Amino acid sequence: MSETNGTTNSGPIIETVDLWRIYRLGDQEIPALRGINLRIYEAEFIALKGRSGSGKTTLLNCLGGLDKPTRGEVRIFGQEIAKWNERQLTNWRRHQVGFIFQSLGLLPALSAYENVELMLRMIGVKGKERHRRTVECLELVGLGKWMDHRPYELSGGQQQRVAVARALANRPSLILADEPTGELDSKTGREILTLFRTIVREQKVTMLMATHDSLVDEHVDKVLHLRDGQIVTQAEYDAELAPDETDSAQQPAAVP
Ligand SMILES: Nc1ncnc2c1ncn2[C@@H]1O[C@H](COP(=O)(O)OP(=O)(O)OP(=O)(O)O)[C@@H](O)[C@H]1O
């Protein structure tokens, strides 16, 4: 364990206490998060659902140390990160968190292998170990035969797998994924969700995934519903949705 935390995993990996994030645009205040309380434990696979603008990305950014809350606390392994210096925060981001963004962020000129390897170079993993870990991660996501291909030579699902391999490379405690299936067709989306499930179970990594995807419920341990920056119950969330956004909308209309 790094100097960032140096603690055990018995409590929650991450916890928030009355977390607020208010953006300021001129004299306007936009409360993106309004008092979030949550606890996430090791090897949990959690979906964060909510409409566009409900605060999902803001929450992921606060947990990953990419954004600073306006008030309230983010605790990582029991430590409040507002008290960390820049080095400790960087340490958390680099060594303990894996990020998967919808845009993937793969470098087009680099092969799948090089995209993953670059991440390990950036955190200072040396020679043979870097090669071993790169191959291991690509094999884990089923891309052993595709390592030398560049992103444009891969399908959308395969590109997403490269992004997953890259997020796993630093052996993170926590993977934060923002709309990881948003650009994929439903079959490929399902395959990626199955892969996530396997990774959570086998690597004991924790995963929090922001999504609109109705397929996720059967794959995750828990669904958190975000509405206007607050966590609400499933019933409150469903009541807010327009009829064509609920599952019941897919049921046939009344039988004549
Ligand atoms: N940098 C910013 N400056 C001002 N307002 C912002 C900023 N980032 C986000 N917001 C606002 O905060 C609210 C939450 O945005 P956020 O991106 O977290 O939502 P989201 O649920 O991730 O949406 P989507 O599903 O569309 O990605 C929105 O009202 C958004 O306009």
Q: Can you walk me through this structure?
A:
With 256 residues, the protein is an alpha/beta fold. It has a domain at 108-171. The protein has seven helices and ten strands. The chain has helices spanning 56-63, 86-95, 112-122, 127-140, 156-168, 186-203, 234-240, and strands spanning 14-25, 28-40, 45-49, 71-76, 79-80, 97-100, 174-178, 206-211, 222-227, 230-232. The protein has a six-stranded mixed sheet. It is globular and about 50 Å long. Residues 1-8 and 246-256 have low confidence and may be disordered. The structure holds adenosine-5'-triphosphate. Adenosine-5'-triphosphate binds next to strand 1, strand 2 and helix 1.
- Rg, rounded, reads 19 Å
Distance between the termini: 64 Å
Bound ligands, named by name, code or SMILES: adenosine-5'-triphosphate
Order of helices and strands: EEEHEEHEHHHEHEEEH
State which percent range the strand residues make up. 15-25%
Strand order of the largest sheet: 6-7-8-3-9-10
Global structural class: alpha/beta
Please outline the major beta sheet: 6 strands, mixed
Helix content: 25-40%
DSSP strand tally: 10
Globally, the shape reads globular
The helix tally amounts to 7
Query: Are there runs of 5+ residues with pLDDT below 50, and where?
Result: 1-8, 246-256
